[in-house]
Structure prediction request, 217 residues.
Amino acid sequence: MKAVLNTKKILVVMMVGVLVSLASCNSNDDSSPYVFVPLTQAEKTQQINQMQGDYVGYIHYNYSYLYYAYMDSVKVNWNVRANDSTLTIQNFPMKVFVENIVDKNMREALQNDSIHSIPSRVVLYRPWGTTGTLQNAYFNFIPKGSSDFMVEIPLEIDGVEKKVSFIFNSVYMNSTYSVGAFNTNEMAFNMILKQLKIEGERTYDANTLVVFYGKKS
Prediction:
């Protein structure tokens, strides 16, 4: 058990290190004030072309503040298309979102569903403080259905199919953001679920952060 926890800790430290580094800044000489220069369209095109492809990896979920590690993971596939900068997660295992859901029927609906895909937008950017050619590609991860950060999915709840809006967020606990990084053939990104809303019925608070890490297949 201890060895498993240590392995998970190492993995999470690595993933968090990649994502937290997005906010890091290069040191600048006081005599040469930093001037932010956004990515050019040519740079964005080069980066998204490098990211394009199919990926195999894991969603890490059920974070433990006791062990400072994600206690569970499930295998998942996703792909990136360069022509429209989309990232689509296939056969999404909804059970990763049950952690903070208390309603029995909604928990069962999520635990039993893994047939739907979740589309998203990839918005490339230059992290503040960096200059020159970037070693990695950095992006905002934006789940998108009818609008940004909202995806509608039919779920069978207590034997009845209902339309559920998955409402995502760009920030978790004012410290972790819906961002990602890519380097050569590896990718890591965060997904933050804020709420689940059944059409015409109630809304459930989720407030759940899951982390993806995978490689090109």
Notes: The helical segments are 2-20, 41-51, 104-111.
